[in-house]
Amino acid sequence: MQTIYASRFAKHEYDSASKTLFSDWFLETEYMSSVDFGTEMEAWLGVFRQTKPKYLYDNCVNFLYPIVPQEQVWMAELLNAEWIELGLKKYAHMVPVDMITEMSVEQSFEEFFEMKLPKQFPIVNFTNQEEAIKWLYE
Which of 4, 57, 65, 130 is deepest in the core (most CB within 10 A)? Predict the structure, then answer.
């Protein structure tokens, strides 16, 4: 596995054998500004352009930045169409157990699906790493 990008907020590693991008977000995201969030999303897109992964394992268990609705729309517009064009097939989204019970995590990706783009990749939320990995490669 090769580290493609790392900051105080995230690390993105690519496994060329499985064509999977492993994104890991850190507790430091609690202190991100909206500018930091934008920078991290643009860097993530850059990682996608460089690696063109088929699968994304996005570990957001420690992601603490509250993405406001305007940022959700901006993120979807920035990432979704290009990720589809670059060939992303599946997105496994790891979230804390309490996030599943306290709020709808789907809201974070609602804007992706509302775009109604052809070849939209599925995004599934998981609290168990083994289940997420299994689903990615089914």
Answer: 57
Here the tokens at position 131 are 């289940």
Sign of CA pseudo-dihedral 77, 11, 85, 112:
negative
Partners of 24 in the β-ladder:
11, 59
Domain ranges of the chain: 2-136
Tokens of 110: 């609602």
Q: What is the pTM of this model?
A: 0.88
What's the sign of the alpha-carbon dihedral 113, 106, 92, 60?
positive
Residue 118: per-residue pLDDT: 80
Quick: pLDDT tens for 41-82: 999 999 999 999 999 999 999 998 888 888 888 988 898 899
Q: Does domain 2-136 have CATH number 3.30.750?
A: yes
CA–CA separation, 138 and 136 (whole Å):
6
CA distances from 31 to 9, 26, 27 (A): 9, 10, 8
Paired tokens of 37: 């969030």
